[in-house]
């Protein structure tokens, strides 16, 4: 059993949130837009309605939603909400009212006044015992007599828009008071004349309230950048280049989603205040130490001792992640395999109602169009069609195959190719046409643009047999690559996987880590699954090299595949 470094001490200072309580979250939202006196209509408040409703839903709250209530109807809605059956099991409530107002009052659509003090009376211990010792977050968007609440007729109120931006960005990390502090800091930093500082009327919270206190936090120490990032990529299901990447300390990066937070530390030799990693509330769930192939037991034990001394944590808090070819054995320090890390994270995720590593959705798409490719195959000519996401090295791979720089290429995490590009060469007596394609299946481009790229690619492939090279960077195979293969099948035929070779770029990273393809497959099951679907055809490229061995290996794979399809 792996040790976790989180204890129960932090729980004493936060409001409890459980899987069950989150499933019963409930919120009240009232937004007055249209008034009996048309001149009082709150133009632009429709945007606030949409933004606030979506924010509350994203925070896990069922929203009891009203629009355009009179003063009495606001009172009735609050009274009814205070008796809602879900309040018994929820961990918290939000009450949001948006309208005109004045000091201590909110205006109904009939201009009758509703006193804001009634909100607190309806939800107090006497009138609503189900909410005793539970956070009650009251948000009022209205003028207060002495202050003005600005609203754009096109974008909604500045306060609601700013609040939504802050909560969407930070609600998985900070407690509610810090979130509101960030909202106020945004207004403080603004130079706009239309920015009015929001105020906090009262605060009776005695503990910290985290909307999502159960996110799994993991600190990774040690060397081996590829192993660190491949581990993170596999767990989070996304390339680390696409993840939220922020600095915690000078040399520390944090990669995160709604389930996991990975604090990726620099090399252990880098001067760093490690104690700060443990000062966050709540503290991390796991502390992993990555070691390089051929590690020395003595050196690793010294690293553990140093970490223990710097952080004040016992040595058994730190678990050494063994290189892939190592098996569990008797070491002086606590150790585990990659698979054991996955198992432990699965347990933590299951306990907190989070997505399991082994239970990610395998298919985000529906049924595929059934298309047949009956083209006759020849043995002297072939099209090599480069497919993949931007920044994986498609164009550079095209240049490697051609043996010269013909296709536009540069080191970038963003797409370089905007249109299909074609270049030709001769390799071992076979006429090869290299077709470099843009990221035609990028989910952010319009369908008409995708259709145009697909049509152009099909036209280029009409005359000769085609082999699709699905280009991926070593250690960065995600659901997006699985999606590309699905979209290839949809656009070019459901047997396209029989014509596809997986081309892994940045192969030098594998060598630096002492890893084989089998090691990589065990680390990234998504890559293994995609490769198996493509007949286990996988070739590794290092585009910084000019040797022809890797190209010949690719062509051998291509020829064998074409010969098999001819039979």
Automatic annotation (TrEMBL):
<dbReference type="InterPro" id="IPR006703">
    <property type="entry name" value="G_AIG1"/>
</dbReference>
<dbReference type="InterPro" id="IPR011600">
    <property type="entry name" value="Pept_C14_caspase"/>
</dbReference>
<dbReference type="InterPro" id="IPR029030">
    <property type="entry name" value="Caspase-like_dom_sf"/>
</dbReference>
<dbReference type="GO" id="GO:0072557">
    <property type="term" value="C:IPAF inflammasome complex"/>
</dbReference>
<comment type="similarity">
    <text>Belongs to the peptidase C14A family.</text>
</comment>
<dbReference type="Pfam" id="PF04548">
    <property type="entry name" value="AIG1"/>
</dbReference>
<keyword id="KW-0645">Protease</keyword>
<dbReference type="InterPro" id="IPR002398">
    <property type="entry name" value="Pept_C14"/>
</dbReference>
<keyword id="KW-0788">Thiol protease</keyword>
<dbReference type="GO" id="GO:0097169">
    <property type="term" value="C:AIM2 inflammasome complex"/>
</dbReference>
<keyword id="KW-0865">Zymogen</keyword>
<protein>
    <recommendedName>
        <fullName>AIG1-type G domain-containing protein</fullName>
    </recommendedName>
</protein>
<dbReference type="InterPro" id="IPR002138">
    <property type="entry name" value="Pept_C14_p10"/>
</dbReference>
<dbReference type="GO" id="GO:0005525">
    <property type="term" value="F:GTP binding"/>
</dbReference>
<keyword id="KW-0547">Nucleotide-binding</keyword>
<dbReference type="GO" id="GO:0072559">
    <property type="term" value="C:NLRP3 inflammasome complex"/>
</dbReference>
<dbReference type="InterPro" id="IPR015917">
    <property type="entry name" value="Pept_C14A"/>
</dbReference>
<dbReference type="GO" id="GO:0006508">
    <property type="term" value="P:proteolysis"/>
</dbReference>
<dbReference type="Pfam" id="PF00656">
    <property type="entry name" value="Peptidase_C14"/>
</dbReference>
<dbReference type="InterPro" id="IPR027417">
    <property type="entry name" value="P-loop_NTPase"/>
</dbReference>
<feature type="domain" description="Caspase family p20">
    <location>
        <begin position="23"/>
        <end position="147"/>
    </location>
</feature>
<feature type="domain" description="Caspase family p10">
    <location>
        <begin position="127"/>
        <end position="213"/>
    </location>
</feature>
<dbReference type="InterPro" id="IPR033139">
    <property type="entry name" value="Caspase_cys_AS"/>
</dbReference>
<comment type="similarity">
    <text>Belongs to the TRAFAC class TrmE-Era-EngA-EngB-Septin-like GTPase superfamily. AIG1/Toc34/Toc159-like paraseptin GTPase family. IAN subfamily.</text>
</comment>
<dbReference type="InterPro" id="IPR016129">
    <property type="entry name" value="Caspase_his_AS"/>
</dbReference>
<keyword id="KW-0378">Hydrolase</keyword>
<dbReference type="InterPro" id="IPR001309">
    <property type="entry name" value="Pept_C14_p20"/>
</dbReference>
<feature type="domain" description="AIG1-type G">
    <location>
        <begin position="379"/>
        <end position="567"/>
    </location>
</feature>
<dbReference type="GO" id="GO:0050727">
    <property type="term" value="P:regulation of inflammatory response"/>
</dbReference>
<dbReference type="GO" id="GO:0004197">
    <property type="term" value="F:cysteine-type endopeptidase activity"/>
</dbReference>
